[in-house]
Write a structure and sequence with these properties.
Length: 635
Amino acid sequence: MSNPYELAFQRSIKDPEDFWSEAAENCHWYKKWDKILDDSNKPFYRWFVGGELNTCYNALDYHIENGRGDQTALIYDSPVTKTIKWFTYNELRDEVARFAGALADLGVKKGDRVIIYMPMVPEAVIAMLSCARIGAVHSVVFGGFAANELATRINDSKPKVIVSASCGIEVKNVVRYKPLLDGAIEMAKSKPERCIILQRPMHPAPMIPGRDLDWYSIVSVAKPHDCVPVAATDPLYILYTSGTTAQPKGVVRDNGGHVVALKWTMKNIYNVDAGDVYWAASDVGWVVGHSYIVYGPLFRGCTTILYEGKPVDTPDAGAFWRVISQHNVRTLFTAPTAFRAIKREDPQAELMKKYDLSKFYALFLAGERTDPDTLQWAEKNLGVPVIDHWWQTETGWAICANCMGLHHFQVKPGSPTKPAPGWDVRVVDETNKEVKPKETGALVVKLPLPPGSLPTLWNNDAGFVEAYLEEFPGYYKTADAGYIDEDGYVSVMSRTDDVINVAGHRLSTGAMEEVLSSHPDVAECAVLGVEDALKGQVPLGFMVLKAGVNRDHAHIILEVIHMVRARIGPVASFKTAAVVKRLPKTRSGKTLRGTIQKIADNKEYKVPATIDDPAVLGEIEEALISLGYSKARGK
Ligand code: COA
Ligand code: AMP
């Protein structure tokens, strides 16, 4: 007997147009689409072509018109500033409309880009929704990135305006954003016309006359701006994500497919209704923050929580339980690393006992594979379903999940359960042939991708095809490897490229290698991700020095650590490196990063038949042992 999940899944694959047009009926359109799925320009697909809508209207005004004006839309809970603020739908809409007016006064119009480089303050959400309101394209840059990364994004997206804040607060440290912003603009070739700065009292920043404007001053004179209808296929935002090279990829999200898909997921994946309190403990700088702090919960008429704090230290490992009980949270979405941090501080979950979690319904985890230990610890202590789900910046929502609104499958630890409706997931070998159940291969998705997934990369259709569609014709390449078992459960095991996952943050080892290579004493280098009990993975660097360099290795190591922090940002967590005489290579000169990684992770490995000189592996093992890593021996 088929369950609702199976019925929905089959329908979404056999007749995606019918499936998604029904979901689209639940959204507000100024003009309905002419065509649900336009596949006339394969491999580019477009959803709801000819339709017109406004994302901000669907997030705010729609609910006000349907009687939710006085319901809380957003709770800003900031243990680092000891502040809690509530915004009703009416209040949030008014703030957004005024800031949208302020942007329009600066000449920002439909299609113009606005970069948002802000900490977790309500003004970040207001700025995002204001862009959506006037049809401008926002690009949020995570605060943990350094000036150089911000400059790269400025050059690619060419924003008319940048919205930023004087500072962010990381536990007890004040992180000054403004010098990073000024440095980035200095470095960038493309210059914004204006910067709008939110002055925070903990550390107001000096302003640059003629360029910088004070948030409060411009808002005080701005008139509310109405929603501007945009095409369903117009871009809503660009979100840069790490790829193989140092140049991040500008993932584009459209307006129409995004509203339709995210609103659908709120009920069918997360099983939340309008009025429920939904909390994604992430950051607006990541895709989880876009989809599930801001857009998804608001499309559904939920109350969303913006949390400016950490799972531990703000003030302790009971922080999440305090927020859940104080605000009656139904659903929490975070990364497994947050739970590992809590478990490390409070292994018996003693702090949980202080709080009433009776309204709590389910925990969703993503960003990295949920390790079975963390899953079982959370299940045992919380006594609610713990759902691992797999997705990517590119996809915008879950590729695989236990869709709680459709059918609650038994959880298999280590698996994000089954493909969500819309995602025809396959496992293929390097010749693009499907492999047998349980055999590991490349995880790919048969085209077309469902609404809400990336239609292309910003100004880079060729890059989109090259990165995702070329290697496995007819499929989208996820760049994850894994398998599907006999029951249809998917397991996602590792990346197939140079991307690593550090505390749920996606980073490029290639970008770090570029930084190390630019050190004057470094001849060549390799950076790889090694297992870490808290962060899942952390980067580890190996450097071969140029002939004749006889400086103290410890100094060189400190210098490269500092360089990665300065150029990529603290979020890279690049803290360990070693100097070695040689790197292990194949006879054709390819560095054997995978083998080094296995040695560091204490996993069995085979000495590759193509290795140039097996003795180098012994040298690497010694270096790893001196850094405190494994004693594994090759076979
Ligand atoms: N602005 C400025 N700096 C930031 C920042 C931001 N928004 N976010 C992080 N950083 C800094 C941190 O202060 C830290 O700096 P440090 O090297 O000076 O200590 C560095 O970047 C690394 O941060 P992080 O990886 O978050 O490590 P952490 O040790 O501070 O905290 C966890 C570890 C597990 C508690 C933390 O990663 C966490 O809460 N994760 C939750 C999951 C999550 O948000 N995932 C995102 C995708 S869902
Ligand atoms: P990001 O684009 O930052 O969301 O990172 C996406 C990558 O994180 C994926 O390609 C996976 O490698 C990894 N990832 C995210 N969620 C999961 C999960 N539930 N299980 C395994 N890997 C995951």
